Structures are given as structure tokens and as C-alpha cells.
UniProtKB/TrEMBL annotation, chain A:
It comes from Myxococcus xanthus. The chain crosses the membrane at residues 12-34, 41-59, 79-100, 112-129, 135-154, 166-189, 209-234, 246-267, 279-299, 306-327, 359-380, 406-428, 440-461, 487-510. NDH-1 is composed of 14 different subunits. Subunits NuoA, H, J, K, L, M, N constitute the membrane sector of the complex. NDH-1 shuttles electrons from NADH, via FMN and iron-sulfur (Fe-S) centers, to quinones in the respiratory chain. The immediate electron acceptor for the enzyme in this species is believed to be ubiquinone. Couples the redox reaction to proton translocation (for every two electrons transferred, four hydrogen ions are translocated across the cytoplasmic membrane), and thus conserves the redox energy in a proton gradient. One of its GO terms (cellular component) is plasma membrane. The keyword Transmembrane applies. This is NADH-quinone oxidoreductase subunit N. Residues 129-324, 354-454 form the NADH:quinone oxidoreductase/Mrp antiporter transmembrane domain.
Automatic annotation (TrEMBL), chain B:
One of its GO terms (biological process) is ATP synthesis coupled electron transport. It comes from the Bacteria. Residues 72-128 form the NADH:ubiquinone oxidoreductase chain 4 N-terminal domain. Belongs to the complex I subunit 4 family. Keywords: Membrane, NAD, Translocase, Transmembrane, Transmembrane helix. GO terms for cellular component: endomembrane system; membrane. Residues 133-438 form the NADH:quinone oxidoreductase/Mrp antiporter transmembrane domain. Signal peptide: none annotated. This is NADH-quinone oxidoreductase subunit M. The chain crosses the membrane at residues 6-26, 38-59, 79-104, 116-132, 138-157, 169-190, 239-260, 272-296, 308-327, 334-353, 365-383, 403-430, 450-471, 492-510.
Amino acid sequence: MNLPNLSLADFLPLLPAIIMVVGASILLLSEVFLSTTASRAYQAVLTVVTAVAAGAMALTTMFEPPQEVMLGFGVLDPFSSFLTFVVCVGLTLATLSSVSFLRKRGAERGEFYALMLFASAGMSLLAMSNELITLFVNIEVLSLSTYALTSYLRRGTRPSEAGFKYFILGAFSSALLLYGAALLYGATGTTHLTAMAGPLSTAISSQPGLVYAGIILVIAGFAFKVAAVPFHMWTPDVYEGAPTPVTALMSAGVKAAAFAAMVRVFFMVGKGVDPQMLLGLFSVLAFLTMVAGNLLAIPQRNVKRMLAYSSIAHAGYLLVGVAALFVTGPGEQFRLLGASALTGGTPLDLARAEALRGILYYLLAYTFSAVGAFAIVSVLERREDEEKGTAWDLERFSGLAQRKPGWAFAMAAFMLSLGGIPPTIGFMSKLLIFQAAVDAGLIGLTIVGVLSSAVGIYYYLRVVVYMFMRPVPEGAQALEKSWSTELALVLSTAAVVILGIIPGPIMGWLEQASSIFGQ
Amino acid sequence: MSFFDNHLLNLVVFLPLVFAALVALLPAGEHGQIRTITFIAMVVDLVFGVWAYMTYVPGGPEFQLEYRARWFDLFGTSYHVGVDGLAVSLLLLTVFLGPLVVLASTTYIKFRIKEFHLALLVLQTTMLGALVSLDVLLFYIFFEAMLIPMYLLVGVWGAEDRQMAAVKFFLYTLAGSLLMLVAIIAVYFISAPVGARSFDYASIYNGLLDANRQLSACTAGPAGACDSLTGLAATLYTWGPWLFAAFAIAFAVKVPMWPLHTWLPDAHVQAPVAGSMILAGVTLKMGTFGFWRYAIPFFPVATQQARPFLATLAVIGIVYGALMCLAQRDIKKLIAYSSVSHLGYCMLGILAITAEGATGSAYQMLNHGVSTGALFLLFGYLYERRHSRLMADYGGIAKVMPVFTAAFVIITFSSIAVPGTNGFIGEFLVLLGTFKSDLGEAAGNPHLTAVFGAFATLGVILGAAYMLWMVQKVFFGGITHRENQHLTDMNLREGLTVLPFIVLVAVMGLQPQPFLDRLEPSTDRFLARARVGTPGAELQEDRLRVEVMALPSRQVVAAPSAPVPLAAAPAVPSPRQ
């Protein structure tokens, strides 16, 4: 057996992930030397510093051309760099909001932050994976960390239930993914995505069943991870049961990384098989996810569950962007809808770049809005209400505008951003996705998208109604303040509002980020 | 063009927002300071708004006081503002209402003063922004952002059913405009090839113009002539009606046109005085303004096809609104339904596509802002004293509140278009325009024009009936309720808020020319553009194309250093040349 000869420089592209792993190891090791009562404030600071460093490192690679790294098992392209940046943003905000959350529950431990970092390292690597086994390993790295994080507060019944459910279903979906990958390997003889397109196009005529089964199983596996309908059943329970900052990281980071991997896999697979089939599959998934996610969110009085369903709905909008990747060409675009082409449109590579940009910007926008919203949920919940299930009831938001105008303003901004109302980042990102979808000719899907987002406004506005238009409940307890949560809220609110008005440097990165390896 | 002129519109639009930031910094308990600063902001904004109005040269280029800067290049949009005659007139109306709304609310709003004034200032910015936007996406952003402060005004400071009304208002308007967003994106893609695409008004309009003309020419031809169309014209042939429908529904909800009006009575009735005044005064005009600026010029052929239908809805709105008024016992609801009726005239005037109709409609937009704004204001004062909206609770008010009654009656005259008031000119022109229009031909029978006109005229009569009936029941006769015997007449502050309205009613009624001068160039251009869809109409080439300033190149990000002379402004590069 000959081991590959890797120099130090070969590891440089992985630096963001390496930084996070090193940070996590330091946190774990330092925990050994601490007594149970020692102050652990530095741990959150260290996590944030690590996350910021990793994010900054990802930005430095943003303008490098796409290239294979680690012998082709991974790739470094602006797409993955931007995604690592998104993950680091989510990690930073989630960490900041977890400090007071953990302290209130007496659960501040290095493991928590270390697991968050491991999970994020897995997400970053997942976005870079260019080979099916590597991809699977990275999915497991991030999943195992999040399973553990979900049941981190192991004393209650809810976290154990959530953790168990998440583990069983997660393992099941990983198995599906692995099985699909095995079938694809059987059909093509390679696990490298780059090398797969050629053999796929011959295999599809000789062994169509094998290829289709493989593709469908892989899609199903990813659909579990991104919580697309009908593979979404686990989401509300797990999101509700997990500690709120973990839910925030899950909704932002795990989803972002899974979407990135899905895009990369099917971008490559799409070169070998008929893109029309992928377009159809993803359109159906997107349709179901948008409609069901939004409709199921309406009856929720529990804000945390509502946000869980809303995260399903947002996966639906993102899937519209994914579907838009598989346009085959001007003129062909409208066949699916039975309509004629709007115009002899955009060249294919440009249309795809639009879709990629839309997906990435949407992930960033969703990270800011959702993590911010979960941060507000986490400061309002009280431990003693959790078993009763009223910790996240809408009533907790009553009169928030009078008690904490700043928080109410922030939450209103997050809700409007999630609902896609200008002038917020949520609107701009939705616009970009729908722009890509219209250009791809997915008019029907776009109309379903905007109408279901109008439905979405209803339940987002309900939170605003409670905050601004209901009186403060009798005997409401004073709300605790913590500098770190406030910081997370200020950062995310500023991002949500300002990025909706001022383009800023992010637009430059985004323009770049649409270049994906193998384009 | 000086630096000041270049930035005048930016100043007018964002001044309230800057003051909002100032108000946000004040402690919540400082009610007096908050009110004063908001009032000052509105007055200063009024001064700059009047300045903009006076600076606008009626005979000059279509869009004046333009400013354009790079903004979200990746999306194909730029920050582009400028005004034509109609926009600058509506802008004047908006800044005119601003300080009066603040004054009118000093005693009406008793709690959460700071948030209230913040909402007012933000609302002012969004409304002005929507009026001056020359980029369709920018317009959409302001158009939607307007909903948030208005939603809070209705939902927090409204009457008993405020939450239901606020949510209904928000969802109704939003659902309509989201479809328009899809249409805007679609129009963005079809109007120009890759590289030249832009959400800019001129780029989209000019991009669609030639195709619209081809399409119009073939619809005049024999059946099947349109099947041979190619390119953009063919696309517009298939998709144009749908795109027009998406625009039209969004604006029709806002106007509101029957049968999409049901949010309006709720929102108006539940809203506080300030909310009703702004809602009636300005936000409803966004609907008619949208038809005028976007929906009709973009899709003249689809407009031509839909005209009889839309005009029928407008006429139904006129008569239905008036009949609903006759059935009301709630005064505020009556004023709300009268808005449905009045806005029906505005729509009918626009759809007539005659010089009289369009001018009358534009004038009526201003009139309605003045007269209905004043009615809501006056009723708000009455409500503050008596806390009832029911007509039955009043009667004989003229004996205890003579000055108030006089003011109310004058405004009522304006609302029912008594000659000598502003309302007369607007409604008369709309009716004249309707009778002279080709609505009947468009509907397939020339005699139908007279039917449209007759029903609209019936609306005028009904309008006089319900308003006078209401005035009689509330103000005249004996005092039937003991509580009403000791009502106090208007105080100085209240009188000062009402006076500007009365002055405007008289000035606009007796001296309409200065106002009409500014509306005229817009009317001419609107007619020229709308007639593209009329088969066989003579086109005035010089009024068709939209000419605006070019996008500053990438190096000058913040501001164009050398002001572009407007008259010689190069047209935005058209893909079809």
C-alpha cells in the first residue's frame, strides 16, 4: 500500500476546518484542568474567536480559482469558501446566544462548544467534498456532533426524545445516502464526482435502473438532512427538543452544508444524466416542501415549532434555486410547465451562476434571520416551563415591545426578513432565488413560491401582533439581560436590516461565489 | 442643476427617516419633544417638497430632479429617483398631509407616543420613496415597506378590532403585490437581452415599446395576424395579459377596486385619525399611480383588451360604494366607502384614455387626498369628544359646534363636487372624459360609452345624497342626546389643522391652472403611451420613449460628479436598436 505524499501546503485549503478542530481540541483539553465550579466564560470567547478566524480564513480564499485539493477528494472553490463563511457566521451567532442559555441551566461545559466546533468543521469540509466516501464521512462528523448536542441537556425528557429521534432517523437517512452512493459506484466504477459524469452517461443506457435507484436514494438521503417534505417528519420534534442555540446552529449550519453538498453532487451528476429528470424531481420536492412547510406552520402556537416548520418552508425556497440549476437551455425551459418560452434567454452558465448565487445568498440571509430569531426564543424561555410545553408559547411574546423595545424590534426584523418583506435581507435573497427561477423558466414554481410565502407572512406577523399589539401579561417576570446574547442580536439585526438596503462587500463575494468547481 | 437640485428628492425622501433616528434616541417619556421634533421634520419636509414642486418645470423633460447611483448591481437595479408632473403633485400632497397628521394626533394618541411618531416618519419616507422611484424594483421595495408602519399604525393605535383589520390589510395587499413581483422579474428578463437587463423604468418601458407596437398593429389586422409574431412581440402576445393581470391585481387591491376593496372599510374604520388620513390621502393613490405609471404603459395592448372589464369594475365600484354609503350607520365606514366610490372615478378617468379623463383623474387623486383626508380629520375630532362612530348618537351638533360644522360642510361640498370647489373640476373632467371616450367601442358597442358615463353620473347624485343625508343627521335638527349638549367647539390647534384643507379646497377649486399645468405633461405622455394599445390610433412619437439619465459608471460609486444635463440626457441603451 502506498500512502499519498502530502506536503504541508496541501492542507492549507482546509485551514478553516483545521482552525475549528484545533479550537475544539483546546476546549476539550482545557476542560480537564477545570473544577466543576470554575468560570468558563473564556470558552465562549475562544469559540467565537475560532469561528471568526475560520470565517476570515474562508474569505481570503474567496477569490482563488476553483481547484482540486487533497488529491481530488475535495475541492476549493469560491462556492465552498462562501459556504464556510456562512457556517462561521451561524456558529458565531449561535455561540453568543448560548452563553447565558447554558449558564441559566448550569450546563456550561467545554464539550458543548467543542461539539459545536466539530460540527461546524464537518459542515465546512462537507461543502468541499468532491468524493462520495469523503462526503459521507463529513456528513457523519457533523451529524454525530449534532446528535450529541441535541441531547446535551440530558436531564429532561424532551432532549433525550429529540436526540434519540434525530439519531435514529439521521442514521436511517445516512444509510439511504450510502446505499445510493454504493449503487452509483456500482454503475460508474468511481466515487469521485469529477470522474462520474462520463461513465454515468454510458451507464444510464446500459443499467438505467441502477443509476435511477442510486440517484433517488441519494436525493432522499439529502432530503432528510435538509428537511424537505416528505422527509421532514423529524424536524419539528428535534428542533423543539434540542437546546435552542443548537436548534439555531442546526437550522442554519446543517441545512447550509447539506444544501452545498447536494448542489455539488447533483451539479456533477447532472452532467451525466438527463437534467430534465433532476429538474422534475427537485421541482416536485420544492413544491411539496414550500406548500406543506408553510401550511403546517400556521396552526403552531409554539414559536419554536413554528420556526421549525418555517425552516422546512425555507428549504422549499432553496430547492427552487436547486431546481433552477438544471435548466437545459433556452426554449427547453418551459416544456415542464407546458408553456412556450418567455424569451430566447440567458446563456446556460449565466443562468446557473444566478441560481448558485441565489442559493448561497439565501443561506446567508436565512442564517442571520433564523439564528437571530432563535436567540430571541432562547432568552424568553424559562427552564421551569419546558416540561409543561409552554416555554415557547406565543403568549411569552405578549407585550414584548413595551418590556424590551430593542428585542421586539429585532424579532420583528427577523420575522419580516423570514417572510421576505423589504427592506430586509430576506427579501433580497428571495428576490435573487426567484429571479434565477424565472430565468430558468420555472414560472409555475415561482408563483407557488410567492403565494406560499404570502401564507408564511400570516404566521410571522402573528408573532409581531403579540409583541406589539398585546398587553404585557399580568405578573410577567423581569427578563434577564446578557451581553453576549445582546451582541448576537445586535449583529444579526444590523445584518438583516442593513444588508437589505446597502449592498456592501458581500455582493462582491457573492458575485465571485457562483463559480463552482467543474463549471 | 446644482448639487442641491441633484439631491433635492433624496432630501425630501430621507429627511423624515433622519429625524426618525433622532426621535428614536429621545427618551420615551419626552412626549412634548417627540411631538415637536416630528412636527418640525414634517414642516421642513413640506418646505423642501414645495421647493421641489416649484422647481419642476412643466414644459421641461419628462423626469426632473433626477438622481441615479449604483446599487445592487448584481440584481440589475440602481438607486434611481426622479419626478414627473403627477409624481411631484402627489409628492406635494404627501408632504402637505405630513405636519397636519402630526398636529391632528396630539390628543388622539395617548400611549406609546414615541413609537407612533417613529411609525409616522418611517411611513412618510416609504410613501415619498415609492412616488419618486424610477426603478421598478426600488418602487416595489418602497411599495411593500410602506405596509409595515401602516400595519403598526392600524394595529397598535386603532379601535377595538384593530388587530384583525391590520392583519387583513397587510395580507390582502401583500398577496396582490407578490404576484406583481413575479411579473416584475419576468418583465426584467424579457425586456432586454443578457447584459443590458435592468429594473430601470426607462429600460423596461423602452424595451417593451417596439414589441407593443408590433402587437398593437397585428391586433388591428385580421384574425390570426398575430400568430406570425416573433421574439418579444410573440412573448407579449402570449404572456402580456398575464403580466398585466399581475400588475393590475396588485394595484387594484391598493386602489381599491371592487371586488378587492373589502380590506378598506375595516382598515379605515379601525385606524386612528392619522392612519385613516394617510391611508385615504396617499396610500390609495399608490394604486392609481401604479396603473398610470407602470401597468398601463408597460402593457398597452393588454390594457386595451381589459379596459371594458376594468371600467365596468370601476363603475360598479362607484355605484356600489355610494349605495353602501347610503346603508351605513357608522360615519367612519361611510367615509371609507365613499373612498371606494371616489377612487372608482379616478380609475374610470384613467381607463377612458382621453385628455379630459386622464386630467380629471389625476386632479381627482389630489382632491380625494384633500377632501377625504379632511373628512377623516374632522370626524376624528368629533370622535375624540364623543367616542362614538354611530350617526344615531349625534344630531344637532351645529348648535354646539358651529365652527366645526361650517368646516365640515365646506369639506362635504368638496367631496360631493359642488361647483367652486376642487371636487367639481375633477369629477366633471372625469365624466366628460368618459362620455368622450371609446370605452364603448372597446367593449364592442359604441352605445355602451354612454352607459358607463350614465352610471358614473348616477354615482355623483348618490354621492350628494349620502353625504348630505349624513350631514343633516349629524349636524342639524334638534339635539337628541343629552351628552351632546356640552360639546366644545374646535380649539385653535384643531382649527389650524383644518384651515389648510379649506384653503386648498377653495384654491384648487377656483385656481386650478397652476396645478393642472404640472399635471398636463404627464397626462400627455400617459395618453400617448396608453394609445399604443389602441388599434389605428395616431401615435405621438416624441412622447413615447422614456428618456432618463444613464447609470453612472462603476468608478463613481457614490454620486455622479458631473451633473448630466437633463435635456441632452442620452437614452438608456436599448437592446432593440
